[in-house]
Amino acid sequence: MASTAKGPKISVIMPIYNVDRFLEKCLTTLVAQTFRSFEVIAVNDGSTDRSGEIAHRFADIYDFIHVIDQENQGMSSARNAGMKAARGEYFSFVDSDDYLSPYFLEELYRAVTENHADIACCYYYYHFVESDVLYKYPFRCEGVFDRGEAMKKLLRDTQIQSLVWNKIYRRSLFEDYGIEFPSMAFEDMATMNRVFANANKIVVLNKALYYYNQRGTSTLGAINASKINDFIRATVTVRMNLESIGAYDRYKKSYHALCRKTGLCCSYYVLKMHTHKHSMRGCLHNLRSLWDAIWFYASDDFSPMRNLHADLPDVVDTPEELKKIGLR
Fold first, then answer.
1. Residue 96 sits in a domain of what CATH number?
2. 55 and 163 belong to one structural domain
3. Owning domain of residue 256
């Protein structure tokens, strides 16, 4: 692809860390995109396997693929580095262990430009890697939504989810408001509401154009106490963001729905963690602490703080820590 003097229309930002099993397929599906005015900013975040080698091999062949090598700093740092290097009018974020329909960029770009929108979203397939089963995400909608409608759907996290990778965004939504990804798990949830809060119009396509590889080492596959605590922190960060722009009262019901969903998901992850550790010691304590925290952070008694995700105490402990203090 020959890029124009003004730069590509879309910058695809792709963090890479130890995904040599999946990376070639991901890059191959990017090369096969029917939309051609794009660049790939591949950020090799200190990979210790062959991921860096694979990324550089593709960059040597295709002039629209650019590789940034950095020491391992995590997914958020890699995405932030990619945004700084990007030249496109729009951003898209692709996880390097996933893959795409060849029409992913074309369909999203057409949707966002024809509707004069700031964000376009599509749906996706879960690809369960070990069993090689595809499952299409079921809660679909479609249409053009104003900010208020889209925010309510986003906060409820069903028809529009706080996933960074199934969308394209006008880059000004990030740059004009100084938005970066925080260094935590579930950073998508902590960030997407800030991006949507500055968008005037959002398009949702009822088409599955992204393939999410569900595997054992993904954020949800390798759940632990630290990630569960970050899930809760990300949810409370949403409230912090809404309060900071004076929008919490408007979206209070939707935020409470998000809290209920977070509580149910984290309850499942607590049970999964204890089962994986072959120890139910302290499980009930974790579940009580979890729900007490969720409802406190949703209540009128809670006053948001600055630097919220850094200041909030942990809610859930590992079975090993609970065993030390003798909880059952």
1. 3.90.550.10
2. yes
3. 225-324
Please report which residue ranges of the chain form alpha helices under DSSP H.
Answer: 23-31, 51-61, 75-85, 104-114, 147-156, 172-175, 187-196, 225-244, 252-276, 283-297, 308-311, 319-324
In this structure, are residues 122 and 208 in contact, taking their beta carbons and an 8 Å threshold?
yes
Q: Which pTM value belongs to this model?
A: 0.91
User: Is 245 part of a structural domain of the chain?
Assistant: yes
In a domain, 220, yes or no: no
pLDDT tens series, the chain, 328 aa: 333 457 899 999 999 999 999 999 999 999 999 999 999 999 999 999 999 999 999 999 999 999 999 999 999 999 999 999 999 999 999 999 999 999 999 999 999 999 999 999 999 999 998 888 999 999 989 999 999 999 999 999 999 999 999 999 999 999 999 999 999 999 999 999 999 999 999 999 999 999 999 876 555 557 899 999 999 999 999 999 999 999 999 999 999 999 999 999 999 999 999 998 888 888 999 999 999 999 999 999 998 754 455 578 899 998 777 666 655 5
